[in-house]
């Protein structure tokens, strides 16, 4: 018994020593490079582990992370992992270790690991730098009489052809010991360069590279500019500046001594382009390996319709300065240039990209109108010669206006008002939670205990809103006045759009005060009893609109769909109204105008679908009802699918809410449930249910068929037909697979149709 007790006391003291393992991810590095030093301690005991770190020798500690994992079942144990990120500072062969570990009364020691820091030559550069920038930094000349810090400017080339890329790199040099004393990042100011097109380039934050100068290692911080000279001659580079502060003592709150350094002025030469071999049509394009492509869509259309032409120039060089190509447009087209679009990128340290020139062409003549082959002369910087990039011409087939289309009834004119339905706007103005609280609060008050009445607290009036919000309210009130003539109402609507754009523009964009004063002046001229002011208002409407257009920085310069519609470019107008309808799907005007443009373009399926959407938003609008009579559904089944409720769901919902609240108010006033109040409650519930039913009906996945199509058994052209759907009929969408969609066509017909032959109603134009 005594021997067993002694054995029980001795065994815990003979605990197993922890197992210590050291590892590095690399054993040979250059100064400035980082390594990961891992210490892993595994023990069969769960007691805490204390690790004594070794001296780091020729390394400095950048970061440390530690993690311990403890297990209790089925056997106790602890694993501690420490990772140190070390940066090499001094060349030589350095031993990291040994590492001593303590766990309770047990001590363990590991074997050291050896890492070689190679010396001599330039240090490594950051992985985030391009190869071109890295070469410039590696061969950059240090500042003269370089001490603990310095600044220099490295220019990639001293002489370049006009339009060639020049890299100007500002380099701040800091001896490592000084850099480690800095409490804040130094301030580096790039030089100013006149007569160039400049593109500041992003560089990785922190140290970009390391260099050894006269036996001392320096950490380099860089700023990078890509410039293109615009005129031949000497291009001056102003001095770059460096500011930094060094603490006078090691205490944190000690004073600092500031230093300011700057470089000498520099310059490079921009040489004029040679005259030999220059094409007579050369317009100044300079780059490398330029390529041109030309596309026209659609490839065929009708007289009076619009075609979109895109010419893309791709390659390396200053994309912004590439001129528009010289195009000989064939007779029979009216051409309207649009804004060019630039897409920039970097290719092996050189600026590259694509510049797209867009044109809108309206066909005035019928026939096969061919666009000639495109020639784009440019100076190739790669071999110093003039070259010509070309693209094949395009053929556009323009059919004459058909008599069938010309004899069609005229749709109602397009509209400019942008008023949302009152019920829909009122419902959307208040969050849904507030409506639910309003509906549920009365029954809770009736069912709950009575509370003593309190006198209402006197509250201060709400603060006045911003001037643009006040201006928008005044414009809304003015638009509701019946005595405002239609031309003035259109101008007020345009003014309201400018106010809304300025209200929701980013901070600092536009002049809110000037815009509010313009609204006040405009409304003052329209005041009743001021006919002279109203006449002056009409006379100065155009000037006011132009001024507002110049003040608003958020408005684009693209052609508006109304202009396309007036020019007879109905397909382009339809695309513009389509984008507006997608952006504001609760605006019946957008759907109505889209239906008009589609009807004029001969797309009856799109017109029918758009007018149905407009009618569902404003069912009692006479103009929309007349427009719907121009395109009739194919059969009674389609007419049933496209039914319009005489009252919109928001109107039903608001009427039901009013009846519901009045019923509960009557119950609380009479203190008992009377027949008429119960009737109001029941009516409110029925109206809310009707609103939900109409919304469910409107959300059905229905599509209008564009042309007669065969229903396929499977989604491919060679599949057998299982039925046929007529033009302007309707189908119910089920599932999509690629370019095909599974539909139900009524009369138990189910099959696959191509997506491009359908115009969906719910989830409109999501394809």
Distance between the termini: 87 Å
Total helices: the number is 19
What's the alpha carbon Rg, rounded to whole Å?
39 Å
Main beta sheet: strand number and arrangement? Answer: 7 strands, mixed
Structural class: alpha+beta
- Count of DSSP E strands? 38
Segments where pLDDT lies below 50 for 5+ residues? 1-13, 451-464, 531-558
Shape: extended
Strand-residue fraction? Answer: 25-35%
Which percent range fits the helix content? 25-40%
What is the mean predicted local confidence, pLDDT? Answer: 79
Task: Describe the fold and architecture.
By secondary structure, the chain is α+β, with helices and mostly antiparallel strands. Helix content is 29%, strand content 32%. The protein has 19 helices and 38 strands. Strands 22, 24, 25, 26, 27, 29 and 30 form a seven-stranded mixed β-sheet that branches. Strands 11, 13, 15, 16 and 17 form a five-stranded antiparallel β-sheet that branches. A hairpin with a 2-residue loop joins strand 35 (730-737) and strand 36 (740-744). The longest helix is centred in the last third of the chain and has 24 residues, at 675-698. The chain is extended and about 90 Å long. The chain starts with a helix and ends in a 7-residue tail after the last strand. Mean pLDDT is 79; it is low at 1-13, 451-464 and 531-558.
Short description:
The protein contains 19 helices and 38 strands.
